[in-house]
Amino acid sequence: MDTNRDIEFETDYRRWLVFSESVNNAKQLKNLENALNKRKSTNDISVKKKKDGSAYEYFIVENGKSSGLKISEENYIQFLNYFQEHYGRKKIENKPFTIDKQKSLKYSSNGFSKRNLGQKQMFISVQEEGVRIPFLLEKISSSNKLKHSFTFSLLALLVLQILIIPGNFGGFSFGDIGTYTFFGIMLLMWILSFWSYSKLFTMQNSYKEIFRLTASYFSILWLIAFSEIIIITVFEGRFNLWFSLFLLILGQISGLIISLFATMIMYFIKGGKVINVK
């Protein structure tokens, strides 16, 4: 990385944090925390990403310092967890408590919750600075992507009843407007699902991670929506086993196709780049 040729890079993040000036200043600590969580540069912290062979490395430099931290993408989460465990709590200790802070602290004493995921740990920020999450979305969200997607799929299905029930029981046809409304509600709920997850929990914003969250939502939604339609045909005496199986398979294929395009759009919105960062 040519722009950093005069910078000496430390590879031990523990040692780098000991000599960091940001961790001893409440305002700078917050800037450092935001930069590390979002993996983006701020006014005082430079975060640059460079591809090294098949892997990526991060170069982190504090403004005005001649030394920085070089860390691989593989070890970045471990570094982030270490930072939150040893330094993240200072942003709470150095600030007066407010109603919003007290509400967020129900998850832990320092505003972060440590969840065990096998041998890994993930720190979850309840509420980012300046970001307001509606109470309902916060209540139904979960760090578990499958559980999170399942809940929002059920919420989407509940709203879609305004189209499903009249069309199947009342014989009412909404025409093209109904089709557009159906997909509009489905996409809106997906956006809410992704938005609430990305604001409440730590995300790497990689294509794979976004696809997992997106595909699980659409797959579950189409499965339970078509299952409901099949149940309706049973009560109406129009049930056909082969057609029902075909409908379920078609729903999953459709959900997969939509997920691929939706993930592509969201990936580039969240920072995906066509050209590698130099």
Structural account:
The structure is a single chain. The N and C termini lie close together (7 Å). Helix content is 56%, strand content 13%. It has 278 residues and is an alpha+beta fold. α8 packs across α9 (207-235). The strands form two sheets. Strands 1-4-3-2 form a four-stranded mixed beta sheet. Strands 5-6 form a two-stranded antiparallel sheet. Keywords: Membrane, Transmembrane, Transmembrane helix. The chain crosses the membrane at residues 149-171, 177-198, 210-235, 241-269.
How far is the first residue's CA from the last residue's CA?
Answer: 7 Å
Helix content: 55-70%
Overall mean confidence score, pLDDT? 75
| Major β-sheet strand ordering | 1-4-3-2
Beta-strand residue fraction:
5-15%
Beta strand count: 6
**Topology pattern, helix = H, strand = E:** EHHEEEHHHEEHHHHH
Output the structural class: alpha+beta
Uncertain residue ranges: 89-131, 274-278
Largest sheet: 4 strands, mixed
Q: Helix tally?
A: 10
Coarse shape = elongated
Core attributes:
single chain, about 280 residues, alpha+beta, four-stranded mixed beta sheet, two-stranded antiparallel ribbon, 10 helices, 6 strands, disordered C terminus
Q: What are the SSEs and their pairings?
A:
Blueprint: E1 8-10, H1 13-18, H2 26-38, E2 45-52, E3 55-62, E4 67-72, H3 76-88, H4 90-93, H5 99-104, E5 112-117, E6 120-125, H6 135-140, H7 145-168, H8 175-200, H9 207-235, H10 241-269
Helix pairs in contact: 2-3, 7-8, 7-9, 8-9, 9-10
